[in-house]
Design a protein that fits this description.
Number of strands: 34
Largest sheet: 9 strands, mixed
Distance between the termini: 37 Å
Oligomer: single chain
Helix content: 10-25%
Number of helices: 13
Shape: globular
Length: 608
């Protein structure tokens, strides 16, 4: 198998393009990339602002709207419903292609003329404060979610209700502070769990109910810190934990972090999949270097967050839903195929370098079109004219490339330059997955947008909040609460400095017996993001060293008291007997991380 080694234009590191990659690029007739996979991912992410919102006037109706486009972004904004209506014609902005200018410059000029929807939502009811959502009802500050009701402060959800502060959670109800989990019911603080109920502080548990502070359990009930209790003992012990107290909850959160840090780890969360590398992959085949992908996906690489019948896709975020042959795209697919270098393009086929086009086919460099074909820069052509002009433009993109401020060149085959994005780096998901300081952003040639000046008059400091939810009266909804991070000197997590408790939120905390939060929703979200594995892989060997792990862990139940430091001792014989496990794997756990990371075989021997 032949391969090519290239130097990334951006970070100058070497990266490999293998034969399978070359075959894919040949299939869609694009040249190989000149940026490494990580820099390509960052570049795409700088074009997607999920959760930074502004208040502006719709430029057609004058109505005040919530939007993801900053007032100084250079983007005209229409109310979302007005944008989708027939009250304006995107073709009226069509322009002749200028062969003397780089394509990307012409595209950015067009983007500055055509109105964009205030937010990218679909069929949402009473859920104005959110973005990139669909089928959402009665929710507040929820983002990148499809299917939900009565949700608060959550992101990347697929089917959930009556819950708050979730991240990448599916098909769950009455949950709080859950991450990377599915099919939960009345679970508080959980990570990487499935089919669990009526529990607190779970990590890597499956089929558990009535458990507290547990890791790596399967089909257990009435366990506390991995130790079995009788039903009556469990319920009586739980009564003494006083989980409605903020002080007590902080103690348990700190203990949970210690327990989680020392839990046995499987090299990656890959389920029912073949020839797959990455993390959080379910029902995929031949899917490599991908993350958060599930439900009938095959022959894909470098994809993040997507699935649902997706085939032959490379380099994308938010891809899928019955789609194939996708490349270098964001929020694209949904009954479509042959979508290359697109943003927010659904249904249709053969659309390239386009933004917010739906139901289109044979379009190149277009914005905001619906059910159109044979258009270039929003100008209508005949089929014959289009087929003759597009190859000329592709050749021109090679001879007249766009050159950014850092001197990097963009020809046909490269995604849109980050410096042309209407969003700043710190507004986008790039800051969530690849966080940078202001200095690092500007040094990398990206854009940084200063936060809007806040005019809050804090009426209650976080340390002045009642400790217990039972001592919190209805007047709390009238207070402006100072975020604990702001009072301690700030943070790098887009802290909003102050926040309010809305009535629906207070009802939720009372129903679930939870104390009021001390951090704003942004700080809580970024805190959850830091608890997830990075979207990056390292080559490592299994840390199982025969009888025990090479890494020292708190001993599991049955060896010593929880918390005593000792190597993890295996509970069953492994296939390699007492010799070190020879298995190697690609894992999101970096080599310098302290956790014991086992291969599939060793992990299954210990946990399943």
């Amino acid at each position: 198998m032949s391969s090519e080694t290239k130097t990334c234009q951006s970070c100058k590191t070497l990266f490999v393009i293998d034969q399978e990659d070359i075959d894919f690029y040949g299939k869609i007739q694009v040249p190989p990339p000149t940026f490494c996979p990580s820099c390509r991912a960052v570049r795409r992410m700088t074009w997607r602002n999920e959760r930074t919102l502004y208040r502006r006037a719709c430029e057609k109706t004058g109505k005040q709207v919530i939007t993801c486009f900053a007032p100084d972004s250079g983007i005209h904004v229409y109310d979302r419903d007005v944008w989708w209506s027939d009250d304006w014609d995107p073709l009226s902005f069509g322009t002749e292609y200028d062969f003397s200018k780089p394509f990307f410059s012409q595209f950015r000029e067009l983007l500055g003329k055509i109105p964009m929807p205030s937010v990218f939502n679909s069929r949402c009811v009473r859920s104005d404060y959110g973005n990139h959502n669909g089928e959402l009802k009665d929710s507040y500050l929820v983002f990148a979610t499809w299917g939900g009701e009565n949700l608060l402060y959550s992101s990347k959800i697929l089917g959930a209700k009556d819950s708050s502060d979730l991240l990448v959670v599916n098909n769950s109800e009455l949950c709080y502070e859950a991450i990377g989990s599915s099919k939960l019911y009345r679970v508080i603080y959980a990570e990487n769990c499935e089919n669990c109920s009526d529990s607190y502080f779970l990590y890597e548990c499956r089929g558990c109910n009535n458990c507290f502070g547990c890791t790596n359990l399967r089909n257990k009930s009435y366990h506390i810190f991995n130790r079995p209790y009788s039903r009556d003992e469990y319920l009586e012990t739980l009564k003494g934990f006083n989980l409605g107290s903020a002080a007590e909850m902080e103690k348990f959160k700190a203990k949970f972090e210690d327990i989680k840090k020392n839990a046995l780890r499987k090299y990656a969360n890959i389920v029912n999949s073949q020839n797959a590398t990455g993390d959080n992959l379910t029902n995929v085949s031949n899917c490599r270097d991908s993350f958060d992908i599930s439900n009938d996906v095959r022959d894909c690489r470098y994809c993040i967050n997507g699935g649902m019948k997706m085939y032959d896709a490379y380099d994308g975020y938010g891809l899928g839903a019955n789609a194939e042959l996708l490349y270098e795209s964001v929020d694209t697919g949904a009954d479509g195929n042959r979508f290359y270098f697109d943003i927010f393009v659904w249904t249709g086929n053969d659309v390239a370098y386009s933004y917010a086009c739906h139901g289109c086919q044979n379009c190149f460099g277009c914005i905001g079109l619906r059910k159109k074909e044979y258009c270039i820069l929003n100008k209508q052509y005949t089929k014959e004219e289009y087929k003759e002009l597009v190859p000329r433009i592709i050749n021109q993109m090679e001879g007249v490339p766009y050159v950014d401020k850092k001197g990097m060149t963009y020809r046909y085959g490269e995604f849109f330059p980050s410096e042309l994005s209407p969003f700043a780096y710190n507004e986008t998901i790039a800051q969530e997955y690849f966080p940078l300081s202001r200095e690092e952003v500007t040094a990398g040639g990206y854009i940084w947008r200063e936060e809007e000046t806040k005019h809050y008059s804090v009426t209650k400091k976080s340390e002045e909040l009642p400790d217990a939810i039972r001592d919190t009266d209805d007047s709390i909804v009238n207070e402006i609460i100072g975020c604990a991070h702001a009072s301690s000197g700030g943070c790098n997590e887009k802290c909003s400095f102050a926040f309010k408790i809305i009535p629906e939120e207070l009802m939720f905390y009372r129903k679930m017996n939870l104390p009021l939060p001390r951090l704003c929703s942004n700080c809580r979200h970024f805190g959850r993001m830091t608890r997830r594995n990075p979207v990056r892989l390292w080559r490592r060997r299994c840390t199982c060293d025969g009888r025990e792990s090479e890494i020292s862990l708190p001993a599991q139940a049955g060896n010593k008291e929880l918390g005593d430091k000792s190597p993890y001792r295996n509970t069953t014989p492994h296939f390699h007997d007492e010799k070190p496990c020879p298995n190697e794997f690609d894992t999101p756990y970096a080599p310098d991380r302290p956790e014991a990371v086992y291969c599939e075989q060793c992990y299954q021997s210990e946990v399943v």
